[in-house]
Amino acid sequence: MGVHGTVSKGFERVRDAFETNFSEGGEVGAAFCLHVKSRKVVDLWGGLTDVKGKTWKENTPALVFSTTKGATAICAMMLVDQKRLDIDAPVAQYWPEFAAGGKADIPVRMLLNHQAGLPIVDAPLTRAQVLEVAPIVDALANQTPVWPPGSRHGYHALTYGWLVGELVRRITGKSIGRFFKEEVAEPLGLDFWIGLPADEESRVARLVTAPPPTDPAILAQMAALFGPDSLAGRALSLNGAMSGPPGGDSVFNLPEVHRSEIPAANGITTARSLSRLYAACIGTVKGTRLFGKRTLDKALKIQSDAPDAVLGLRTTFGLGFMRTGPEIQMLGPNSFGHAGAGGSLGFGDFDSGVGFGYVMNQMGSGLLIDPRAARLIGAVRECL
After folding, report:
1. pLDDT beneath 70: ranges in the chain
2. Where do the H-state alpha helices sit in 124-263?
């Protein structure tokens, strides 16, 4: 596969790693971008946007699953920086209906750090209702937590985005997709959408589903952890509403899924935009810095670091961001961002001034840092 783009002197090892992802990592199409202290030093792309042979271009966007959560967290932290959102205030102060089901005292921080006990929705919603957004927001407002809030943390795989997104809407009067567009993407010149405009659909790379494991023991383990009746299975699929047929194409390739606002999972962006987004969290890019150092310090403080009640893995979170931990190895102790199912990754690193963006269309089978992203992280570390 041809690899295109530019690499600044001293970062040649990163290009080698990117090429190795194609030759040894099963990459189909991908892009990688790196900013260091607000300067773009790596900008690479290559491969195919689908299995039919369409070439990946420098501006090809891809769906990045939970990497979207980082963008959603950035929106929340911008409101914290503007003193419009208090992370210790009850969610119900901003969203009165949320008080139902014994949730009157849940503070905002528990939505951001996955401790609220709302990883699933009991209401039997159809996919059309989920994509409409309002029905699932109403269902979450009425939901009773599945564990005492604050007693544990567990990955709110899809509900995270609607919970935080509704806070943004209640405070600003804008949906989170509109807020992100107007307050983040447009000032920074990003190709990044939470809710894709229909006229951008033809540009989007098509996801290639990961092949299922062949080891019977691994299959049995996955069935136990992610089966339709398990907490993880229900959280990841919304009781099946967001699942496709076994062995079939991903529902996240559907245009109607792209157009909806799923702020935990359907962000569509380029590596260049993802890298620039995080660079603007730790420095000034195109005259814009998204929030100040004091707010970043709040966001970086580790809130949850223990076995995850949903995923069964140890996960580490600050306020909305994944943090470097035993199972999440980013660049250093002051890295913050989010990985997406299948492999994508965006993060910033305050110590080195790095903004890191990796997108791809060949889904991997992992939930945290994919081996392809890990290879790029290792190469960046060697070059700094």
Report:
1. 1, 213-226, 245-248
2. 127-132, 134-142, 159-172, 176-180, 186-188, 216-226, 231-237, 255-259
- Region class of 287: left (phi > 0), else alpha (psi between -120 and 50), else beta: left
Across the chain, where does the E strand assignment appear?
Answer: 3-7, 29-36, 39-47, 62-63, 192-193, 268-269, 304-307, 314-317, 322-323, 335-339, 345-349, 354-360
Q: Alpha-carbon torsion 250, 25, 349, 110, what sign?
A: positive
* DSSP category for residue 210: P
253-300 pLDDT, tens digit each:
999 999 999 999 999 999 999 999 999 999 999 999 999 999 999 999
Which tens digit of pLDDT belongs to each residue from 45-75?
999 998 778 999 999 999 999 999 999 999 9
Residue 99, amino acid: A
Going by C-beta distance under 8 Å and a sequence separation of 6 or more, which residues neighbour residue 358?
30, 31, 32, 271, 274, 343, 344, 345, 346, 372, 373, 376
Among the listed residues 8, 23, 38, 66, the single catalytic one is 66
Angle at 354 between CA 350 and CA 356, to 5 degrees: 125
Which one, of 301, 312, 361, 323, lies nearest residue 51 by Cα?
361
Long-range contacts of 131-140 (CB under 8 A, 24+ apart): 131/256, 131/257, 131/259, 131/260, 131/262, 132/260, 133/162, 133/175, 133/260, 133/261, 136/162, 136/238, 137/162, 137/165, 137/166, 138/97, 140/98, 140/166
Whether residue 175 lies in the annotated active site? no
Answer whether 0.85 is exceeded by the pTM.
Answer: yes
* H helix or E strand, kind and range, residue 191: none
